[in-house]
From TrEMBL:
Membrane disposition: Peripheral membrane protein
GO molecular function: ATP binding; ATP hydrolysis activity; phosphate transmembrane transporter activity
Name assigned to this protein: Phosphate ABC transporter ATP-binding protein
One example of a Gene Ontology biological process annotation: phosphate ion transmembrane transport
Species assigned in the record: Senegalia massiliensis
SMART domains noted in UniProt: AAA
Localization (cell): Cell inner membrane
Family matches, as NCBIfam families: 3a0107s01c2
Keywords associated with the record: ATP-binding, Cell membrane, Membrane, Nucleotide-binding, Phosphate transport, Translocase, Transport
Source domain of life: Bacteria
Assigned GO CC terms: plasma membrane
Domain ABC transporter: 5-246
């Protein structure tokens, strides 16, 4: 199986505080990689590094490499805007813009210079279909995105990310603000999306990690304690700390 992103000896700092230490991880192509671990262990920090979102925070620094498409994403040859186009992100709370459903989806493509109405229409239809939202909204594309339910808004945010034709999709607890029905729709969608995209997802739910991911990474206090196939991590963890966490005995 191909490696999509190769993280080597990664340390990450907020000022003097070392939030991640010596992380090594190979993220597999077209698989779902789940990041689990207790609050504050560095999951969000890690996922935000992959598309350099942490650059937006003053005083951050790193050591090590994150190799994507043959280049370290921090090398001067990498254009950050282009990187974020290729490595899209969906956040914890659905955050559609206060615009119509249509305008939310075409926001990124328009900023990247696509103007032709027919082309934009096609992007809207394809992205909403891929995000399993098209049938629910096709007759009201001009309605406000805020008129959608929370689960629909999150699928719209996924459609907005897909409209940029990404290669990798980062999801930071995408279902934590959703009810069980909306959550299971997003989980089904992730199952579908991994045929086309490499997905990295932060989740607090062991059940969710078990249901949707191929590989699981367990973080603790800024370190990667265990990483491997989800089935192995859950049925036969090698580290006592992983076992304690997944069985809920973590104190
Ligand atoms: N902007 C920041 N400035 C300084 N320290 C930060 C910043 N963001 C996170 N940290 C610290 O880095 C560590 C890791 O935080 P992070 O948010 O990555 O953890 P997490 O595993 O995603 O937690 P949670 O599950 O609660 O979201 C924590 O100690 C946190 O306080």
């Amino acid at each position: 199986m191909g490696v999509k992103i190769d993280i080597k000896n990664l340390d990450f700092y907020y000022g003097d505080f070392k939030a991640l230490s010596d992380i090594n991880m190979k993220i597999e192509d077209r698989k779902v990689t789940a990041l689990i671990g207790p609050s504050g262990c560095g999951k969000s920090t890690f996922i935000r590094i992959i598309n350099r979102m942490n650059d937006l925070i003053d005083g951050t620094s790193h050591k090590g490499e994150i190799v994507y498409e043959g280049k370290d994403i921090y090398s001067s040859k990498v254009d950050v805007v282009d990187l974020r186009k290729r490595v899209g992100m969906v956040f914890q709370k659905p955050n559609p813009f206060p615009k119509s459903i249509y305008e939310n989806v075409v926001f990124g493509p328009k900023r990247h210079g696509i103007k032709k109405k027919s082309e934009l229409d096609k992007i809207v239809e394809t992205s909403l279909k891929d995000a399993a939202l098209w049938d629910e909204v096709k007759d009201r594309l001009d309605s406000s995105a805020w008129s959608l339910s929370g689960g629909q808004q999150q699928r719209l945010c996924i459609a907005r990310a897909l409209a940029m034709e990404p290669d990798v999709l980062l999801m930071d607890e995408p279902t934590s603000a959703l009810d069980p029905v909306a959550t299971s729709k997003i989980e089904e969608l992730i199952e579908e999306l991994k045929n086309k995209y490499t997905i990295v997802i932060v989740t607090h739910s062991m059940q969710q990690a078990g249901r949707i991911s191929d590989n699981t990474a367990f973080f603790l206090m800024g370190r990667l304690v265990e990483f491997g196939k989800t089935a192995d991590i859950f049925s036969n963890p090698q580290d006592k700390r992983t076992e304690d966490y997944i069985t809920g005995r973590f104190g």
